[in-house]
Specification:
Length: 136
């Protein structure tokens, strides 16, 4: 269930992120800022069943609010306008973004009290390991 993902998370490591960002079409300046960022991610569910994801870095704060399996508009950290759908599949929280005929998939799962987020675009694979922080 989505409740496994609820709480506060902090990025501890990242691999192949610049290659992923290039494949997604991000410009040099956006990639440099993203590579320096160490985001915190908060996930919550409200009483109506809406899920909110709030990502905070020193450069930017992004929030999306959604229901599972319902498409919505999203503006990404590098300012792409995408259509996004979130779903739960095999214990993973799947975020599928589409824009201009392109697709990115972000798979989040919990392993050993860590959230592992895998960003997939074409042949590039990028991993971010995020430790779980205690929920307030």
């Amino acid at each position: 269930t989505v409740e496994r993902f609820v709480g506060k998370w902090k990025m501890t490591s990242s691999d192949n992120f610049d290659e992923y960002m290039k494949a997604a079409g991000a410009g040099f300046a956006s990639r440099q800022m993203a590579n320096l960022a160490k985001p915190s991610l908060s996930i919550a569910v409200d009483e109506q069943g809406f899920i909110s994801m709030n990502a905070v870095t020193t450069f930017k704060t992004l929030e999306i609010k959604f229901k599972l399996d319902e498409e919505f508009d999203e503006t990404t950290a590098d300012d792409r306008k995408v259509r996004t759908i979130m779903s739960l599949e095999d214990g993973k929280l799947i975020q599928k973004q589409t824009w201009e005929g392109k697709t990115t998939i972000i798979e989040r799962e919990i392993q050993d009290s860590k959230m592992i987020a895998v960003f997939i675009r074409v042949k590039f694979l990028k991993l971010r390991f995020i430790h779980h922080l205690k929920a307030e």
